[in-house]
Amino acid sequence: MRNILISGGSVAGLTLAFWLRRHGFAVTVVERSPALRDGGYKIDIRGAALDVVARMGLLDEVRRHGTDMRIARFVDARGRQLGTMDARLFGGREGDDVEIMRGDLAGLLYAAAGDDVEYVFDDSVTALHETPEGVRVTFASGPPRTFDLVVGADGLHSNVRALAFGEESRFVHDLGHHISIFTVPNHLHLDRTEMMHPAPGRSAGMYSTGGGDDAKAMFLFSSPPLAHDRRDVAGQKKLLADAFSGQGWEVPRLLDAMEDTPDFYLDSISQVRMDRWSSGRVALVGDAAYAASPASGQGTSLALVGAYVLAGCLAEAAGDHAAGFAAYEREMRHFAEENQKLAANNLKGMVLKSATRIRFQMLMLRLMPHLPGRNRVIERITGPIRRAATAITIRDYRAPASR
């Protein structure tokens, strides 16, 4: 099983391409976007994922591209400060944890994978048909091709998962919230600062990692499942504007800016839960298999670790893809489930349900530097994340000597 197609050219797909090439496989990556996606928002790398990045020789570069965020400020509807929080604690980071922009990480992974990886941009998989020779893949634009194996690394709304496993509704579980992120002018002149305006059932924010011309706007809100067409950007923008209608602070200005943003994103905060991550010669990795949701803060780490483990297990299986896929699931299942558990509790702090709860949390923020049990409070924030992030042992994978 030497010729592998990866659908999806983001963190999971690029990491998998790197490690499959390292183990001697021929790799093709097909990506729906016309080029490598270099935008996105800030993401965290923790625990076992840092070990994977170090084994790729990228840890120093990842640290060099770190966001270096300094502080999170919470404000009321008039912009008056309610409380502050160290940015690392706000993000649940401690020790060696790194925060980086998604596009910066993707660029580093793409360069590291090397010239031996074949990339097919501006195309996507439309059909999969298993034959005695492998998987015959039909593409939206290019001619059909046959691969030994196909891996879906194409995110929460995975096309490969739908083709190989069935309807998305069977696997994607809405956590009762939505998130929107997009680029806006940095009119507040933020420099490594995050501003957050909490309101009952919704939260709006803005951050900039370096005081440049651009910043990111972020909106979180609780909601029942919302039927919206992911291709109807205008409809999504109206949905967001309706959800935050009447909210103060900088929200009206941020909503006005979304009309001209180049990278509007809105989706449900959801998880993917599946009994198995492979079917025949097709497997899934990253969000396509076990999305933990943005509320977990662990989606990127799951993608990095999952890709490393999948490539290693296939290498050790020496041509027996069924054995390789089974080993991958055994090694990753507990890690994925432990990280998914983080989301529900994290959401309670990200979107506060009532004005009373907001007042209480802001009071705790102001009192925290003076509390005798401050370290215990911090441990309650960072401890569960640290334990989930290290809930797997990263081992060496060695293909049989005959290969």
Automatic annotation (TrEMBL):
It comes from the Bacteria. Residues 4-339 form the FAD-binding domain. InterPro entries: FAD-bd, FAD/NAD-bd_sf, FAD_aromatic-hydroxylase. The keyword Oxidoreductase applies. Pfam families: FAD_binding_3. Keywords: Monooxygenase, Oxidoreductase. Signal peptide: none annotated. The keyword Oxidoreductase applies. One of its GO terms (molecular function) is monooxygenase activity. This is FAD-dependent monooxygenase. It comes from Microbispora maris.
